[in-house]
Design goal:
Length: 128
């Protein structure tokens, strides 16, 4: 019973992470907030909050959320996204490549595919 509950919570957390990212990318800020509030994992919640506040260009909130992010790859992604948002494309490319090189498994796959999709998007608003 406890195992089923743990799996159910993990799946709900992953669903919240996915939809928080989608809502942020679509600039649906209220919806993104709702999904971020459903994320239970304290190791990833600050990352999604930082990503959302970066896309809103709320710099103070971005830096506050980013300070709570501990994962090296997540920090590199946020740095690449910040550089892109500020118009420093060369730095975004450098940091983005460092993030991809440092990532493993599913995280690496998501970054590579995200970059491929964004590079071909004529309305691109983020690096990944």
């Amino acid at each position: 019973m406890a195992r089923k509950l743990a799996v159910k919570r993990r799946d709900a957390d992953r669903r919240a992470q996915y939809f928080a990212g989608v809502a942020s990318a679509e600039e649906k800020w209220d919806e993104a907030d709702e999904w971020i509030n459903q994320i239970r994992n304290p190791a990833v919640k600050p990352y999604f909050l930082a990503l959302k506040t970066l896309r809103e260009r709320n710099w103070n909130a971005f830096y506050e959320a980013k300070a709570a992010v501990k994962d090296k790859v997540d920090l590199l992604v946020l740095d690449a996204e910040e550089a892109y948002a500020r118009g420093d494309i060369q730095m975004a490319e450098k940091l983005g490549q460092q993030a991809i090189d440092s990532a493993k498994g599913v995280q690496k796959y998501v970054l590579v595919k995200g970059l491929e999709l964004s590079e071909h998007n004529p309305n691109r608003t983020s690096y990944f």
